[in-house]
Amino acid sequence: MVVTKKDLLGARDSIDKILDEKNCGPFFVRLAWHDSGPHDASIKDPWPAAGGADGSIRFSAELEHGANAGLSGAVKLLEPVKEAFPAVSYADIYQMASARAIELAGGPTIDMKYGRLDTSSPDECPKEGNLPDAEAGPEGKFGGAGGTKSTEDKTGEGHLRKVFYRMGLDDEAIVALSGAHTFGRAYKDRSGLGAEKTKFTDGSKQMRADGKEASYTPGGSSWTEKWLIFDNSYFTTMPDEGADPELLKLTSDKVVFTDEGFKPFAEKFRDSQDDFFESYKKAHKALSELGSKFEPEEGITL
Ligand code: HEM
What we know:
Order of helices and strands: HHHHHHHEEEEHHHH
Shape: globular
Distance between the termini: 19 Å
Number of helices: 11
Helix content: 25-40%
Bound molecules: protoporphyrin IX containing FE
CATH superfamily of the domain at 173-281: Peroxidase, domain 2
């Protein structure tokens, strides 16, 4: 089935409605990143051997990876979009849902292209363990229930570089993409790293970028106070010693401000939201296309 611009625009409208009703944007950003992030740029065998943004995360073989705890809920939320627009691949739906979530939450417009092909069988899922450990470090524990703990890299920054360099991304992209934690929460029953709830996630008021008050399922810990708005508050909050102690700071977040290679970018993004958005949109586009095969080859823009 060949996808058309009309199908993609229809899918986009449906996604926008889900985002408006459920305020689940961060969940979709995590889903899309966990579909593309296992990509291994060193694998040169024919597609889809290197893994990437290819819809493979819809298969339970991959959803059951420890780092993907909870993401079956995001797959389910997007199933009606696939039913209504069957010509649009899962890979496109997941990446579109993520980009729209960021745009509608006040983030940058990402120069997306579509036409990704889907993997067709669970045999094509990547191996477990390619996504980063949130708590890698000397006393680290793995950031996804039941996942594999990295034993080779004893520092958070070494671990992050190993994982993101494998995808073909650089230090600037690592820092920019870490800024996606301006958005969303970590949950006790998913990664195990969030609190039951905090004063920012207990069901009390959360504003959206359009000025509306959002309703959401209470629970978890957020990195920032306004966790449904995509801005540079991750970079202002993480280094702030006086930040509310109920806000989350993972080992992987802390190293962004301590490592000599990462720090200049983190400080730049703290000081200028425009600079953050410029770097973020480039890094996000690259992330959304890791290991993707497009038909037509040049992709379809909307
Ligand atoms: C740098 C390495 C990273 C680590 C160690 C990491 C770790 C985590 C962890 C442990 C959670 C909590 C999951 C849960 O309990 O539900 C989480 C959530 C999240 N992550 Fe990351 N992450 C990383 C990079 C990224 C990247 C590159 C993106 C996207 C560009 C991203 C986007 C998100 C979002 C939006 C959430 C919130 C999900 C929600 O609210 O449901 N993360 N991350």
